[in-house]
Amino acid sequence: MISLWSRWRAVRPLEALTICYLFVLSILILIFHQRVEGWIFYILAHLVTIGGVVFLVWSTRRTGWSILSGIRDWYMLFLFVPMFEEMGGLIRILGHDWVNGAFIAFDQWLFGTHPTVLLEQTVHPWLTEFMQLSFVSYYFIFYVVGAYVYFVAKKRSLFRSLLFKAGFAFYLSFAGFILFPAEGPWVTLKHLQTVPLEGGFFHHLANLIEQHGTIPGGAFPSSHITVAFAVLTGTFTEYRNLFYTLLPIFLCMSVSTVYGRYHYVADVIAGIAIGVACAFLGARIEQWWERRAAFQI
């Protein structure tokens, strides 16, 4: 047991979480492979990824090269994208029916009508453009924030901590996609929308992303909001100025997901709750990990 831990302790929390996530997902794919087209390729990709992570940990520990440590700091930030995209083929792996009705009913109970229809009263090209900018900021803001924290503020331990919390939020979002497959209002309520959204560059960019980068059934919870609030909450205690900078951006992002008809309010509420929980639970996991790891490269 001691020998096993001596090898495992060099793995960072996010790497350990990623290995566990890919392993569990691969087992799930193997069990329900009849529902997954090209299932063998998913498993092979997961095994290759796990092998790559283990090799990177081993080689960093063996050589002590700082460049490898730097790669380990950043590679997961780029790995989340294909991991998100692969969920498009796994949403219905458990055979669950769409649960759109439950989230539509929740929103109607909360507002007395459909929020996306209610927001038609505020639609204006300039507002649409701002909302879409807030929405698409999700696709680059974490790289900007990460670069600032890592290279400018030189808070590399905070960078790793925020990345771990973001990964935790991503994986719980993916679990939500599988357990509660749901299509967004832009699919289910399209027939009720009477006022089209019109805007400029960012409106067209958001539409382009949604047409080519979205996954069918990945509405609940909103991974936009889950990851954003995991990172936001993680900055509160260690970098308060960054927290207050990101807060209005992420609040606008939350509104934009409903204004743009991408998500139900239920998706946003769940995203905020899960994101905040990931930040607090993630901090506890990191503390536990550090007490038992003699070192981290």
Describe this structure in words.
With 297 residues, the protein is mostly helical. The chain has one domain. It has 14 helices and no strands. Helix 2 runs antiparallel to helix 3, helix 7 packs across helix 11 and helix 9 packs across helix 14. The longest helix is centred in the last third of the chain and has 28 residues. The radius of gyration is 20 Å and the shape is globular. The N terminus is likely disordered.
Taking the alpha carbons of the first and last residues, their distance comes to 21 Å
Largest sheet composition: none
Low-confidence stretches: 1-5
How much helical structure, as a percent, in the residues?
over 70%
The number of helical elements comes to: 14
Radius of gyration: 20 Å
Q: What are the secondary-structure elements, in order, as H or E?
A: HHHHHHHHHHHHHH
Q: How many structural units, i.e. domains? A: 1
Mean pLDDT: 92
Report the portion of residues in β strands. Answer: under 5%
- Tell me, briefly, the overall form: globular
Structural class: mainly alpha
Number of strands: 0
